UniProtKB/TrEMBL annotation:
GO terms for molecular function: asparaginase activity. It comes from the Bacteria. The keyword Membrane applies. It holds the Pfam family Asparaginase. Keywords: Hydrolase, Membrane, Transmembrane, Transmembrane helix. It is an enzyme of class 3 (hydrolase). PROSITE patterns: ASN_GLN_ASE_3. Its EC number is 3.5.1.1. This is Asparaginase domain-containing protein. It comes from Marinobacter xiaoshiensis. Residues 2-150 form the L-asparaginase N-terminal domain. InterPro entries: Asp/glu_Ase-like_sf (IPR036152), Asparaginase/glutaminase-like (IPR006034), L-asparaginase_N (IPR027474), L-asparaginase_N_sf (IPR037152). The chain crosses the membrane at residues 115-137.
């Protein structure tokens, strides 16, 4: 059984025409998994509904506490991409679990989003990787502490 924690981020953003802004909405993770024909083998828990730029140390502590207390050894976390590497670093002291963070550069509700691919890729990664903390984005896996987001190129890269 894989535990999935959602924290918000671009993957769950909704565009509201009335105020011309994106806001974090209900998680689309169950829908994204169903679209990939994944209907069982996981439990879902929402932790936060925040843009990762608004995440605080207290929020990261909340994510750490939830993951640490979780009985599952395989954990997938959806997270905003801007501070995903920082949260991965906070989780890196957890040694007996396989923890994979993923997200999207475009909201899942948008037609050309990378969300479905990233969720499917992370789903496979969390099942195949050994214990550790990883970021799985756009077809690549990075270890916590050795990755950063390149804002200009809109991709993750090794440090």
């Amino acid at each position: 059984m894989i535990r999935i924690f959602t924290t918000g981020g671009t993957i769950d953003k909704v565009y509201f025409d009335a105020n011309s802004e994106f806001e974090i909405g209900e998680s689309l993770v169950p829908e994204l998994l169903a679209e990939s024909n994944i209907h069982k083998g996981y439990s879902l828990q929402g932790l936060l509904r925040k843009d990762s730029l608004e995440m605080t140390d207290a929020d990261r502590d909340k994510v750490f506490a939830a993951v640490n207390a979780c009985d599952n050894s395989r954990i997938l976390i959806t997270h905003g991409t801007d501070t995903m590497a920082e949260t991965a670093q906070v989780l890196s002291s957890l040694k007996d679990k396989t923890i994979v963070l993923t997200g999207a550069m475009q909201p899942a509700r948008m037609r050309r989003s990378d969300a479905v691919f990233n969720i499917g890729f992370a789903w496979a990664a969390v099942q195949l990787l050994p214990p550790g903390v990883y970021i799985a984005m756009n077809g690549e896996v990075f270890e916590a502490g050795a990755v950063r987001k390149n804002l200009k190129a809109q991709r993750f890269e090794r440090t």
